[in-house]
Write a structure and sequence with these properties.
Blueprint (H helix, E strand, L loop, with lengths): L3 H6 L3 H4 L43 E2 L3 E13 L7 E6 L5 E7 L3 E8 L7 E4 L20 E7 L6 E7 L5 H6 L3 E7 L1 H4 L9 E9 L19 E4 L2 E2 L2 E5 L2 E8 L6 E5 L5 E6 L2 E9 L1 E4 L4 E7 L8 E6 L9 H4 L1 E9 L22 E9 L9 E3 L11 E3 L4 E8 L6 E5 L4 E6 L2 E2 L8 E2 L1 E4 L4 E7 L5 E6 L3 H5 L3 E6 L1
Parallel strand pairs: 2-5, 4-9, 10-14, 13-21, 22-25, 24-33
Antiparallel strand pairs: 1-2, 2-3, 5-7, 6-8, 8-9, 10-11, 11-12, 14-19, 15-18, 15-20, 16-17, 16-19, 20-21, 22-23, 25-31, 26-30, 26-32, 27-28, 27-29, 27-31, 32-33
């Protein structure tokens, strides 16, 4: 195994992410599987069909609300061909079932934890009250702890996702499967004529490491050994498509890995959305980068390919140091196997974002971590390790603020995620952001070593205590989290 010290000395973390020492995590999270590793090169590529996560069915519904029940429990699924892997799931689905929600119709989910570790369910990107945010200390006890989470869905359409957020457990819980998608829609989105129904496909991307028995091997600081890429819970799967347009919602649910995605023939696609919903206009591109926690929404037109065409979604080699490039650069294969009528479209205008109100407060946020290679390395926001009881930033309700967020490290990349609100990226590296992937509503943004971004946000809707943190889970667990309080 490549050690963290070798990794840092070699500068390998510049794009893909650095890890932190395991000594900072709960002892239950540092176990290593006794079996030898499975060689990723022996896993057949494009042998398993990529599933679409099931859509959760409410047990009751009216025009005002929908009620769901989900259970967190362990099960075994086929992640790599011919082997069953134990995973932690919502309702035995890996990844979890998709919640489809409508703006203005409340969703209530009773979550029950039948695992052996604490959990806390966070709706990533959700505009929710403090008590329903899934805070790191607001946990469900193992063995049956239960809570009802209420999501008002007052925000515009967005591709959200839910995942565990129990402090010092979130890294392993998410790695072992506790994630699911939450697709919020509204009338503005529905009238555009975008690909819908079976042609609107959520795809959760991540990486993993396996032992020879097909079980996950989990260790912190283990990014370089997670050389198996999963799409919707399957290793290097294939997905059959018709020769028509598809809306693909790509979620980076990896603990640490950054993706830089493109089609194997280099063709362009339409980027139509990011974390907080649609962009103002489609953006044509041939590649898109997403850090852990980020989402992108693209439309690929397969009508230009003949039936029988096989096309890959690939990860750029620069986003995959440390492992065999032919493994980590492969993601999934599209197989064009039929023709179908297509009346969907990608309008030239998707939405109008409101003008940014004047900002009255400016703050500087510094993300950093020790880079010595020691197991005692810690991670910081503005020089402080996370303390649940400390309020780091107090914000006036209704205020608009600009935060300059800087990654002060020389080697490790980070990203920045804030709870409660969506923000606008107004500047990156001193240059205004006026178009492209970061021009829409965001809740997570990547920062390479030495890089700064300016984000602007308005704190309204709810008062209370919320997190901001690096969404590389191991960095957050090592201390790169802070509390804000809206008063």
């Amino acid at each position: 195994m490549i050690s963290r010290r070798r990794f840092l000395k070699g500068g390998g973390a510049v794009v893909a992410g650095a890890a932190i020492g395991s000594g900072l995590l709960h002892p239950a999270l540092t176990g290593v599987a006794a079996a030898a590793d499975l060689d990723p090169a022996t896993i057949p590529k494009f042998a398993l069909k990529m599933p679409i996560p099931p859509v959760a069915k409410p047990w009751a519904e009216n025009t005002m609300a929908r009620w769901f029940s989900l259970t967190m429990e362990e099960t075994a699924v086929e992640v790599i061909p011919g082997k069953l892997t134990k995973v932690r799931t919502f309702d035995k689905s890996f990844p979890g079932p998709t919640i489809r929600a409508k703006r203005g119709q409340r969703v209530e989910i009773q979550q029950t934890n039948k695992l052996t570790v604490p959990t806390s369910v966070h709706l990533h990107g959700g505009h929710v009250s403090e008590g329903n945010d899934g805070g790191p200390m607001d946990t469900l006890a193992p063995g049956g702890g239960s809570k009802i989470y209420q999501y008002p869905n007052g925000q515009p359409h967005a591709s959200l996702w839910y995942h565990d957020h129990a402090h010092h457990y979130e890294s392993e819980n998410v790695y072992r499967g506790l994630t699911g998608t939450y697709l919020l829609t509204d009338p503005l989105e529905n009238v555009l004529g975008l690909p819908s129904g079976a042609y609107d496909v959520p795809i959760s991307l991540r990486d993993a490491r396996f032992d020879e028995n097909g079980q996950f091997v989990y260790q912190v600081e283990d990014f370089l050994n997670r050389n198996v890429i999963l799409a919707n819970g399957k290793a290097w799967p294939y997905f059959e498509v018709a020769a028509r347009k598809y809306r693909l919602r790509l979620f980076n649910t990896a603990n640490m890995r950054f993706f830089d995605l493109s089609l194997s023939d280099g063709s362009q696609f339409d980027l139509i959305g990011s974390d907080g919903g649609l962009l103002e206009a489609p953006y044509k591109t041939s590649s898109i980068a997403i850090s852990p926690g980020e989402r992108v929404d693209i439309v690929v037109d397969f009508s230009k390919y003949a039936v029988g065409t096989q096309l890959e979604l690939r990860n750029a080699p620069t986003a995959a140091p440390g492992g065999p490039g032919d493994l980590i650069t492969k993601v999934l294969q599209f197989r064009v196997n039929r023709t179908e009528a297509d009346d969907s479209k990608v309008p030239a205008k998707l939405r109008t974002l409101p003008e940014l109100p004047p900002a009255t407060v400016h703050r500087n946020i510094e993300l950093s971590m020790d880079e010595t290679g020691s197991p005692d390395d810690k991670a910081y926001i503005n020089g402080k390790v996370y303390d649940h009881d400390r309020i780091d930033t107090e914000v006036a309700y209704g205020s608009t603020e600009i935060w300059t967020v800087t990654n002060t490290n020389q080697i490790a990349p980070h990203n920045f995620h804030i709870h409660l609100v969506q923000f606008r990226v107004i500047e990156r590296g001193g240059r205004p952001v006026t178009s492209g992937p970061e021009s829409g509503l965001k809740d997570t943004v990547a920062l390479m070593p030495g890089e700064s971004v300016k984000v602007q946000m308005t704190f309204d809707g709810f008062r209370g205590k919320y997190l901001y943190h690096c969404h590389i889970f191991d960095h957050a667990a090592a201390g790169m989290m802070a509390n804000l309080r809206v008063v």
